[in-house]
Write a structure and sequence with these properties.
Layout (H helix, E strand, L loop, with lengths): L1 H14 L7 E8 L10 E4 L2 E11 L6 E8 L9 E6 L6 E6 L12 E2 L1 E3 L4 H11 L11 H12 L1
Parallel strand pairs: 1-7, 2-6, 5-8
Antiparallel strand pairs: 1-4, 2-3, 3-4, 5-6
Length: about 160
């Protein structure tokens, strides 16, 4: 029984991407890393190629510095970009890497300079609701009837 439990533990560990022995580290700076934490997936074309291994705040630039362990079989061009993306309204966040077109590849420890931080989805939803007026027609002079009533009052 212990052998089966041990096998399952090793299997789950490797499937989760927690084993970082065959990986190299890349760094990226983001203005906002909401939803990203240690262990967050790093993906290329939707496929998991790594995970976030550390985060820290740069006290000079006030940007979040994210360190990622990337599978050694994935060799990214130096002009690649990184964006924090969500799987949807209820899904979790992940870092999406978009390979560039350069021949030269990123080396271990290199920094991805073209980044896009997390989008504030709740802020966007709130902005859409506020723009559409979300709360009925109460207000001064709203609509054609309001204009007619104002014209009548002037007569």
């Amino acid at each position: 029984m212990l052998l089966v439990a041990g096998w399952f533990l090793v299997f789950a560990w490797n499937r989760s991407g927690s084993a970082v022995a065959d990986s190299y580290e890349l760094v990226a700076r983001f203005p906002n890393v909401t939803g990203v934490s240690v262990g967050t997936d790093v993906r290329v074309s939707g496929m998991k190629v790594g995970r976030v291994v550390a985060q820290e705040l740069d006290p000079k630039t006030w940007q979040a510095v994210v360190r990622m362990a990337i599978d050694r079989r994935v060799s990214l061009p130096v002009d690649s970009s990184a964006a924090i993306t969500s799987e949807g309204l209820l899904g979790g966040s992940f870092i999406a890497l978009m390979p560039g077109g350069e021949e030269e590849k990123l080396a271990p420890g290199d920094e991805i300079v073209d980044t896009q931080g997390a989008t504030d989805l709740m802020g966007l939803v709130g902005a859409v609701i506020n723009r559409t007026g979300g709360g009925g027609g109460g207000g001064a002079g709203g609509g054609a009837r309001g204009g007619e009533a104002a014209a009548e009052a002037e007569r």
